[in-house]
Specification:
Blueprint lengths: L3 E3 H35 L3 H41 L8 E3 L2 H28 L1
Antiparallel strand pairs: 1-2
Helix pairs in contact: 1-2, 1-3, 2-3
Length: 127
Amino acid sequence: METTKTIYQLHEDHKTWINKLAFYKDEILIMKNRIHEIAKRNTSKEVLAFVEHYQNQLIVQKEQIDILNHEINTHEDSIEAKANKKAVVSGQKKFFDHSAQREKIEKFENNFNDLRKDLIHFLSKWM
């Protein structure tokens, strides 16, 4: 059975997720800079293959951040539209929890953290 939350609780989730995604976007920039440093220092085919791999992974992660941000904003707009249609006090109106979005965010965070660990291991080996 799916749980329900108030519009304020859902909005708070959205704000939290947007802030987390902004943090991860900043992390991507830092990681890109570190990868660039490795590429400048090491020109072996082995290292450059890893550099390309991690650059591609960061592109994928940034795309996922953009998709998640779009989904969150769309959901926020949807909830707001539903709340505006109701004559009931929207603060007391219950909405279904956005468990699918919550799962997507958690999956993204797990994948991102795994990538970060792998990248740190790679960086420590070649810096």
